[in-house]
Request: fold
Amino acid sequence: MSKKTPKLLNAHAKRRAEERYGLTLNNEARREIVKKIKANQAEFVGKTSNNRSLWRVIHQNEPLNVVYDKARGAMCTVLPKEAREFQGGTDWQEAEREYLKTQARRDVTAELAEIWKDVE
Reply:
């Protein structure tokens, strides 16, 4: 798996904004969107991990559904307008609970694998 650098994340976000919204996000536009997120001038929607969060950002009078990577200070992607994570209500909360349960199961499985690897 390749390392996710800000350069790769920006290129991906730029491609998805064009594909999903018909917007061309140049460097300045991406910096402006990130600046709005950092300054809390965008709507926080939720977290997907310790580093990734979901934001609704108004850009050129259009709400964009943005996934932001705090550790890299970069946009990861721009999700479609109809993305379920941005629809609000219990659907997102249920998805978050399911994610946390899956993560907990994965952690327990990894821990058990570590414990049992020396047993023959």
Notes: The longest helix spans residues 90-116. The chain has a mean pLDDT of 86. The chain has two domains: 6-82, 89-120. The helical segments are 6-21, 27-38, 90-116.
